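Human: We require from you a protein record containing the residue sequence and its fold in token form, and nothing else.

Assistant:
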Amino acid sequence: MRQGPDGKRRWGLSRAAEATLAGHTETCPRAPESTPRPHDGSVEHRARKQLIDARRAIEPILRAAVASLSDPLDRLAGYHFGWCDPQGVPIAGGTQGKALRPALTIAAATACGGSAEQAVHAAAAVELLHNFSLVHDDVMDTDPMRHGRPTVWRVWGETNATLLGDALQALALAVLSDGAPETVTSEAVIRLARATVTLCRGQYEDCAFEGRPLVSVDEYLTMAAGKTGALLGCACALGALCAGADHRMVSAMHTFGIELGLVFQLVDDAIDIWGDPAVTGKPAHSDLIHRKQSFPVVCALTSDTGPGRELARIYHGRHPMTPARAARAADLIEEAGGRQRTLRRAATALESAVEALPADTAADDLMALAHLVAYRDR
């Protein structure tokens, strides 16, 4: 880590990130000693502790919000969060999400001189909104499983799952308006509402891409900024807002979150194609089997290369996308440069996220979370 002449942070990981994310750490030039190494255990431990602490901090608020719903929506929500089985019987140690977004909200607040207590309701609101999107995504993508269990729509049907998602969105706004510091409640609610609109637009574009033969790189990046970046940007901005930060700092945190959202999406796209199913918990090549226009695919299809043209014949053909065809598609994407371009763009976004943080920010927690996002394997 170093400070540039413009007062911005610099994190010399662009080339290191590309090589590491590509799985070739042995070819990565040695970074300065002051730079966190891609697999620095202390940084990863710090980040994972933040995820655990954030989950513990927001869970009572989430449970109280869900309890305010009438039956059966409260039971559907409890099942989705991993707290109970379909009959409502409590489950100890149920599988839940990463809690990345609430962790970012709290980390942004503390980076701006605030406390976790000031931002905890905003963090819970962001998690509720995130889960609204997950429930709806499962319906739109017809995903049968989440965290190793049947998704809500598979258990209760698409209509009930859609209604649950709507309820979680409403709860997010209610939790935020009830718990955010009074001086910033109005702006906080407006920011969350606007992020919801942007998120929905991004999701619409993502779905629309599936019916198109070709998507440009710029179109994909705009979609990702909405679908994934908007909520991470909002999460960080809300943390700063709840800490009483000025407009400059709130804006910087928002930019950090948007860029980190792009890192998250690009790494996610790469993991879906080249990740280990035993680690990810997802079927191999699920995006390819569904012919999704993920970033590596977009890069390959627009590469004007032999492998890219062969990929287009597979992707746009009428034959079913069998596991064998999906595996061949993955090889073609790599041959066409899709993997390398994806990882390079993720590294650039990581640099942009870090550079957005003013040098006078106590951003170690945010940096640790950014490290975890960039170098995760699931």
